[in-house]
């Protein structure tokens, strides 16, 4: 089905762009702003890492991208724009009424053309078919989400031991994805399932396809889960700590498998982990999250060689083996705060070794760390580092007020 | 070890269980304070008692009696009644009393199953809503009411239904039936008439009884007998659904684009059924014990009632035979449970590979 449509796209085009995403959980006691204004882009064939401590909002970001947030959680605002011609044309076909025609429009005209409940945005038409455009996942209704899930964006979860249904064979679960997204059934589907198991390097795939998850080892199960995700033929793969539950040798194999698959199929990957070492292996770009916000973004080498945000510096310092000969491992004192209020200060300031007075009254926004580095940003009052401290703080204060006004409109 | 050889092993293992259970039955019956000879001829006749004891074989050594008893039971020679209907085969007694108990047991399982599980699944799929609270609270109340109390309460309400339920008369509703009488099951012996003579078979109240009349007569007793299991199934069903629906594999299925209905039916229900299996089969034990009580209150002369009478009248062979049958029922329900497990859950029998 999907392979018949041409995929003529220049390398490096943006596949996913998350803009100012806010997801909150509403409990009786408080509102937890698990994701509070996160923005990042994923380009074709690229691996974008999201790294952070437990509770920093990594997984909630991933689930928001998939539209998997369940009550009492809700995506408050922001956009998750997913660009894929197949998904777009299928969603447009079945939801003409909720499609916004924004071809050739910009700015105010564009805002006028968009209705309250539109979720598909077509920027270019090819006859009656949309040629280019995107889908805003946060606006897609539940009934249409399953067109998107799997086929557009697939996801691999943390624990391979529990992410396969124990009462169905591995083959059955892969075939379910094949039936949903490629329309394969019967013998054809079985053969394709065997091919997929072979593609993820599971030996003796013919026999394995009829076995149950409990007959697989942990690493094998994660391979089977990856095969299941591939069966959907996704454009973007979200990996939520896929190697955390595995031991180190298996971890390396899975990482290698993921990069092989990425190269073969031109997948884009969003990779979530708390393990800096894993990040160094797999990611092209890195986003460092802290308390629901992205505090630093840069290409992965840049982060490791030249970390700017004090939090990133602390994270790197705390990797075991960085300071051989020391008696104790370095840590960052304190815990991640629960973000239950809109930020008016720097959330990291209580733990920050470089905090100064303004850190408690000005909320830092993402700025380029200096004039030359266009792809290295940090949300810290110390930057841009080529400005004086007063003018840097002023920049943050002004931009913070601007975005607040934009929010209130 | 495959699932099926696991099942076969369970089947073989049930033999020593039956042996052991039957031995206990022998001890209970023969070593207890029951003297059947006295029950037959009366206390004032010592010579008569002695003669009867000899006739019944009670003077033989105990081990001899034990071996005879075990051989008889395992060759399915259940003996004859001594007291209740002297000389009548235990077989024929059971055959004439059993249908009513089976009819009662069947409906008490079915009613509980078809009300309890859907209600529990509904509550689990809509957690913390008004409907959930209503069903959950109902489940707890239903579970908490003891059989004997609920039975008496229900009988008294049904008898006075004309006064209590705003003129609704249970006896005359749909078909006229008595409240406290055993159901007439003679229609079951002519199953073909269900098609050839449907009105008589299904609804009329002729000499052979009908399906509807028998169902209506058994319904109050079946609801009482099934009440505890209904509450249990409801509560376990709710928990099972909640646990399954929040599990990782359901999240994974959702993430690969499985739609709502298929998600519930394929990925949630089958897993949620696993903890329900022992609850459902566990009912059989309740039914055996509970039927004695409920049959007595509702005046249904079934197996439970027969057992009660046999115990009161010291009818040893009948008592032993009935207990042996209860053991068989219990063991076979357990085997059925294993079979269901083997069918639903592929992990069964895996650990010894």
From TrEMBL, chain A:
Region Disordered, residue ranges: 382-409
Domain of life (superkingdom): Archaea
Subcellular location as annotated: Cell membrane
Gene Ontology molecular function terms on file: ABC-type nickel transporter activity; ATP binding; ATP hydrolysis activity
EC class: translocase
Keyword list, A-Z: ATP-binding, Cell membrane, Ion transport, Membrane, Nucleotide-binding, Translocase, Transport
SUPFAM superfamilies in UniProt: P-loop containing nucleoside triphosphate hydrolases
Pfam family, one: oligo_HPY
EC number(s) given by UniProt: 7.2.2.11
Catalysed reactions, semicolon-separated: Ni(2+)(out) + ATP + H2O = Ni(2+)(in) + ADP + phosphate + H(+)
Entry GO CC: plasma membrane
GO biological process: peptide transport
UniProt feature, compositional bias: Basic and acidic residues: 386-401
Protein topology in the membrane: Peripheral membrane protein
Protein name, per record: Nickel import system ATP-binding protein NikD
Lineage: Archaea, Methanobacteriati, Methanobacteriota, Stenosarchaea group, Halobacteria
Automatic annotation (TrEMBL), chain B:
Alphabetical keyword list: Cell membrane, Membrane, Transmembrane, Transmembrane helix, Transport
Keyword Transmembrane helix: yes
UniProt GO BP: transmembrane transport
Pfam hit, one: BPD_transp_1
Topological category with respect to the lipid bilayer: Multi-pass membrane protein
InterPro entries for the chain: BPD_transp_1_N, MetI-like, MetI-like_sf
Record's subcellular location: Cell membrane
Residue intervals of the ABC transmembrane type-1 domain: 98-337
GO cellular component: plasma membrane
Residue stretches spanning the membrane: 6-29, 102-125, 140-159, 314-336
Superkingdom classification of source: Archaea
Family label: Belongs to the binding-protein-dependent transport system permease family.
Protein's name in the database: Putative dipeptides/oligopeptides ABC transporter permease
């Amino acid at each position: 089905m999907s392979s018949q449509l041409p995929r003529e796209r220049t390398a490096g085009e943006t596949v996913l762009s998350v803009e100012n995403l806010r997801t909150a959980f509403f409990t009786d006691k408080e509102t937890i702003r698990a994701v509070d204004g996160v923005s990042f882009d994923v380009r074709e064939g690229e691996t974008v890492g999201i790294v952070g401590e437990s509770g920093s909002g990594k997984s909630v970001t991933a689930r928001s991208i998939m539209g998997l947030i369940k009550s009492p959680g809700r995506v408050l605002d922001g956009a998750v724009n997913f660009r894929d011609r197949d998904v777009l044309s299928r969603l447009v076909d079945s939801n003409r009424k909720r499609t916004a025609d924004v071809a050739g429009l910009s700015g105010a005209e564009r805002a006028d053309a968009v209705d309250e409940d539109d979720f598909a945005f077509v920027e270019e038409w090819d006859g009656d078919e949309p040629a280019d455009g995107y889908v805003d996942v946060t606006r897609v209704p539940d009934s249409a989400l399953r067109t998107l899930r799997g086929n557009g964006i697939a996801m691999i979860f943390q624990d391979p031991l529990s992410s396969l249904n124990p009462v169905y064979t591995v083959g059955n679960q892969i075939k379910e994805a094949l039936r949903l997204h490629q329309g394969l059934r019967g013998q054809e589907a079985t053969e394709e399932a065997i091919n997929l198991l072979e593609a993820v390097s599971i030996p003796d795939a013919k026999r394995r396809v009829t076995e149950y998850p409990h007959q697989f080892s942990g690493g094998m199960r994660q391979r089977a889960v990856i095969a299941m995700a591939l069966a959907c033929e996704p454009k973007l793969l979200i990996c939520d700590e896929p190697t955390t539950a595995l031991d180190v040798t298996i971890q390396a194999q899975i990482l290698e498998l993921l990069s092989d698959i990425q190269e073969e199929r031109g997948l884009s990957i969003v990779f979530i982990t708390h393990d800096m070492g894993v990040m160094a292996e797999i990611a092209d770009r890195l986003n460092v999250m802290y308390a629901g916000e992205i505090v630093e973004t840069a290409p992965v080498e840049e982060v490791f060689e030249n970390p700017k945000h004090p939090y990133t510096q602390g994270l790197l310092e705390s990797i075991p083996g960085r300071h051989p000969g020391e008696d104790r491992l370095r840590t960052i004192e304190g815990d991640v705060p629960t973000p239950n209020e809109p930020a008016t200060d720097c959330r990291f300031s209580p733990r920050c070794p470089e905090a100064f007075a303004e850190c408690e009254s000005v909320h830092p926004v993402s700025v380029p760390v200096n004039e030359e580095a266009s792809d290295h940003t940090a949300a810290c009052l110390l930057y841009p580092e080529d400005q004086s401290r007063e003018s840097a703080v002023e920049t943050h204060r002004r931009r913070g007020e601007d975005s607040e006004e934009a929010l209130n409109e | 070890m495959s699932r099926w050889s696991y099942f076969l092993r369970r089947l073989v293992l049930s033999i020593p269980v039956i042996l052991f259970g039957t031995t206990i039955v022998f001890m209970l019956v023969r070593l207890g304070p029951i003297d059947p000879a006295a029950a037959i001829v009366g206390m004032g006749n010592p010579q008569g008692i002695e003669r009867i004891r000899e006739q019944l074989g009670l003077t033989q050594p105990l081990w001899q009696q034990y071996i005879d008893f075990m051989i008889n039971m395992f060759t399915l020679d259940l003996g004859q009644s001594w007291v209740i209907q002297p000389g009548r085969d235990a077989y024929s007694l059971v055959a004439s009393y059993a249908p009513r108990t089976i009819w009662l047991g069947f409906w008490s399982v079915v009613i509980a199953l078809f009300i309890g599980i859907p209600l529990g699944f509904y509550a689990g799929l809509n957690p913390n809503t008004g409907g959930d609270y209503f069903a959950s609270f109902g489940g707890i109340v239903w579970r908490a009411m003891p059989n004997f109390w609920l039975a008496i309460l229900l009988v008294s309400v049904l008898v006075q239904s004309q006064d209590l339920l705003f003129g609704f008369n249970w006896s005359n509703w749909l078909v006229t039936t008595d409240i406290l009488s055993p159901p007439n099951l003679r229609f079951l012996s002519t199953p073909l008439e269900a098609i050839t003579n449907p009105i008589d078979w299904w609804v009329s109240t002729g000499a052979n009884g009908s399906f509807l009349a028998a169902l209506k007569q058994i319904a109050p007793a079946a609801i009482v007998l099934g009440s505890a299991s209904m509450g249990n199934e409801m509560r376990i069903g709710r928990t099972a659904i909640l646990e399954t629906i929040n599990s990782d594999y359901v999240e994974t299925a959702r993430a690969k684009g499985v739609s709502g209905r298929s998600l519930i039916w394929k990925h949630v229900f089958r897993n949620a059924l696993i903890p329900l299996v022992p609850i459902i089969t566990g009912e059989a034990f309740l039914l055996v014990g509970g039927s004695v009580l409920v049959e007595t209150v509702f005046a249904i002369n079934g197996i439970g009632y027969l057992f009660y009478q046999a115990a009161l009248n010291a009818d040893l062979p009948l008592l032993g035979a009935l207990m042996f049958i209860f053991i068989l029922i219990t063991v076979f329900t357990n085997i059925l449970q294993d079979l269901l497990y083997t069918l639903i859950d592929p992990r069964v029998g895996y650990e010894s590979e």
